[in-house]
Structures are given as structure tokens and as C-alpha cells.
Write a structure and sequence with these properties.
- The chain is mainly α.
- It is 68% helix and 11% strand.
- The chain has helices at 2-73, 94-101, 105-112; strands spanning 77-80, 83-87, 125-129.
- Strands 1-2-3 form a three-stranded antiparallel sheet.
- A hairpin with a 2-residue loop joins β1 and β2 (83-87).
- The relative contact order is 0.08.
């Protein structure tokens, strides 16, 4: 009887080992599947980030072009019979402004008592002599 119980226990343990082996195999397969899916997602995100960077650059280029066109179309504000008022925009240099108004940099420097022609700031109002 004791031998029969032991054989029964051994058989039950063998079955449990088989079940555990199948579960282990299924878990490993699940891990492989999850890793493959993770790799797919990672690749997809890489492509998405590149697309976002391209879109961002396209938007910046488009907005820059529109701003440049708007600035070109603006009429200078005449403040007297002898000149104009100009508000410095981002990215502008005194050379850019002088070229736009067809005057010399030195004429703007003198008219505004600028100590340094390289030291203008966005929003600064400049008198541009004719």
C-alpha cells in the first residue's frame, strides 16, 4: 500500500513537472513575443520622432517666411519730414536695417547716439534719417 502511494505521488509529481515545464515554455514564448512587440514600438517611436522633427522644421520655415513677408510689406512710420521710426525685430542687425532704408549704418548710429552699432535690442525704437 505504501509503495502504491509512493507511485501515485511520483506520478502526480511527474504531471506537475510537465505542467510546470509547459507553463515555463509558455512564459518564455510570452517574453519573446513581448520583446518583439517592444522592438516594434521602439522602431515606430523612432520614426515618429523623426517625423515630428521634420514637421517642426517645416512649420518654423513656413512661419519665418510669413514673418519676413509681413515685415517687407510694412510701411515705415514717418516721424518727421527727415526720417522714419523703426522698431528692431528679432534677428535684425543695424546693417539689415540700414540696407532696408537705404542709409548707412553710421547715419543710424549718429542719429540715435548709439555707443556701439552691435548693441541693439529687440523692441528698441530707432530713428532712421532719410
Amino acid at each position: 500500500m505504501e509503495m502504491q502511494n509512493m507511485r501515485s505521488d511520483i506520478e502526480r509529481l511527474k504531471n506537475q513537472v510537465e505542467v510546470l515545464a509547459e507553463e515555463r515554455h509558455d512564459m518564455h514564448q510570452g517574453i519573446r513575443d513581448a520583446k518583439a512587440r517592444f522592438d516594434e514600438i521602439e522602431q515606430s517611436l523612432g520614426g515618429t520622432e523623426a517625423a515630428r522633427a521634420r514637421d517642426k522644421q517645416e512649420i518654423l520655415d513656413h512661419l519665418s517666411k510669413q514673418i519676413a513677408e509681413m515685415l517687407k510689406s510694412q510701411q515705415p512710420v514717418r516721424v518727421s519730414d527727415t526720417g522714419y521710426e523703426h522698431v528692431v525685430e528679432a534677428g535684425q542687425t543695424l546693417s539689415d536695417i540700414a540696407l532696408a532704408y537705404k542709409v548707412t549704418v553710421q547715419a543710424i548710429v549718429r542719429a540715435n547716439n548709439l555707443p556701439n552699432e552691435n548693441n541693439i535690442v529687440v523692441g528698441q525704437k530707432l530713428f532712421i534719417p532719410e
